[in-house]
Specification:
Number of domains: 1
Strand order of the largest sheet: 2-1-4-5
Radius of gyration: 13 Å
Number of strands: 8
Largest sheet: 4 strands, mixed
Structural class: alpha/beta
Oligomer: single chain
């Protein structure tokens, strides 16, 4: 399994919180030792090749944790907002991350 995260300069104040949340989600999904490849970008030009949807963009095996196969085409080096039960937030809910990780884990195990 490959877990990647793209962060941006504009989302800097959320970086520690998202790293902590992702580590918690990995542990909850039974993947506490999973490596996370992290990339930092500075502008919209760098967002294109990294397929950054805004900070944070978290992908599991190449799929965005929120959109999966139905990912939009736009790219941005701005702060990303997730539609959560508490409204639009700059950090996803842990459950979204755990579910995406569990689906990938099941795919890897051939279920």
């Amino acid at each position: 399994m490959e877990v990647t995260m793209v962060l941006t300069e504009l989302g800097k104040k959320y970086h520690d919180d998202i790293r902590k949340l992702l580590r918690e989600a990995l542990a909850e999904a039974g993947l506490p030792d999973q490596e996370v490849k992290e990339t930092m970008i500075r502008n919209d030009e760098e967002a294109l090749p990294t397929k950054c949807l805004g900070s944070p963009t978290i992908r599991i095996d190449g799929f965005d944790v929120e959109y999966m196969e139905r990912e939009p085409d736009e790219r941005s080096a701005g702060v990303r907002y997730f539609n959560t039960m508490a409204g639009w937030k700059p950090i996803p809910e842990k459950g979204m991350l755990v579910r995406a990780l569990q689906r990938a884990k099941e795919r890897d195990q051939g279920r």
